[in-house]
Amino acid sequence: MERIFQTDSAFAKEMDRKDPLKNVRDRFYVQPGEIYMDGNSLGLASKDAEKALLNMLDIWKKEGIKLWDALFHYAGKLGEMSAPLINAYPDEIVITGSTTTNIHQCISTLYKPTKDRYKILVDDLNFPTDRYAIDSQVRLRGYDPSEAVKVVKSSDGRLIDESAVIEAMTEDVAIILLPTVLYRSSQVLDMKRVTEAAHQRGILIGWDLCHAIGAVPMDFKDVDPDFAVWCTYKYLSAGPGSIAGLYMNRKHFKETPGLAGWWGNKDDTQFELKHEFEHQHDASGWQIGSPSFLAMAPLEGTLTIFNEIGMDKIREKSLSITAYLMYLIDEKLAKYGYTVGNPREDSKRGGHVCLEHEEAYRICKALKKNNIIPDFREPNVIRLAPIALYNTYEEVHTLVATLEDIAINKTYEEFSNERTLVV
Ligand SMILES: Cc1ncc(COP(=O)(O)O)c(C=O)c1O
């Protein structure tokens, strides 16, 4: 889509004035004097999330053990509230565990290796926890990951070629796990094309939505994947370590969970406390232990915001504000060694811009000194996420002016290149 931008700050102010989402920013705790560009890593707290959390605390204070009556299906209720974000059936989603434990849960349920079909297909750019989980799952079945985990390699370290993924879907592949949006380069994979190709070859497929959920609308009724997992602390702003999402396609509801626990038991017999597990035949049947209400409640607050606005409007602003950032990078920063590392087409990029520079690490430190919060990823990536719900065009303008100043005056030179735990 063609968008016309200008480099002056008056243009940014005008874009903000016309922004249909401009009032949503007030619902978030944006810190005065700080420009937060890291909502793709840890989303900002909102008043809605705070209210939901305090409400949960209040319920605990007043109700004690009686709270279970009202909240018995809370994980499913949050699943239902999440369904519009990916256009799934509400009973296919549960809020439970972490992304990593949910990968373990889904793989241990659906991975049924046989002598001829025993490999798990992955890519080499996904976030490492996915790979650790997959390697340990094949090990648990007695295989050596170097043999049973088939890795599609990126040709440039940035992007994954869907055709290469499809070519790697050989007859020995049992199941696939891929990211929908790549955490570093922001590339969006064509879920529909890849999922269809997998199914045509008798292969199951699941997606890690961590960098897609809340940024990119998805249509699971159309894509029809077998499973999916996601965290809720990035674009969904549900808080550090907030409880994750698990999607299980209805066609697998009868499968016994690989990791069973009493919260996956049928609702009506759970408190009979029998030693025979009776599986609940919807996504809530993939819960393991007691749901963590205090860590889940903020998600209820932010999902209210997402459902009020709808993913289409969120994506529209996200695409516009990231396009504006790329435009300013081209106009103002390209001459100082900054390059855009993400795909440029709307359909191929997620919610963050991948800005590359050989001094990326020290530039991130210099940005922080200027009260701008970016995110560094090895080896040379500054991830910048102007979030549709709370960032402004004016902030993007200031960000680029600061990046320009840092490059011109080489202010990054005052920082060491030695890596510390958190940049
Ligand atoms: C693609 C992806 N998967 C998983 C995770 C993290 O997993 P968990 O939520 O279990 O910590 C991240 C964290 O940034 C991620 O980017």
From TrEMBL:
InterPro entries in alphabetical order: Kynureninase (IPR010111), PyrdxlP-dep_Trfase (IPR015424), PyrdxlP-dep_Trfase_major (IPR015421), PyrdxlP-dep_Trfase_small (IPR015422)
Species of origin: Enterococcus quebecensis
UniProt entry tagged with the keyword Hydrolase: yes
Family membership: Belongs to the kynureninase family.
A Pfam family matched in the record: KYNU_C
Protein name: Kynureninase
Subunit field text: Homodimer.
Pathway assignment: Amino-acid degradation; L-kynurenine degradation; L-alanine and anthranilate from L-kynurenine: step 1/1; Cofactor biosynthesis; NAD(+) biosynthesis; quinolinate from L-kynurenine: step 2/3
Catalytic function, reaction form: L-kynurenine + H2O = anthranilate + L-alanine + H(+); 3-hydroxy-L-kynurenine + H2O = 3-hydroxyanthranilate + L-alanine + H(+)
Annotated pyridoxal 5'-phosphate binding sites: T99, T100, F127, P128, T129, D130, D208, H211, Y233, W262
Enzyme class, broadest EC rank: hydrolase
Enzyme Commission number, as recorded: 3.7.1.3
GO MF assignments: kynureninase activity; pyridoxal phosphate binding
A biological process term (GO) from this entry: quinolinate biosynthetic process
Gene: kynU
Keyword Nucleotide-binding: no
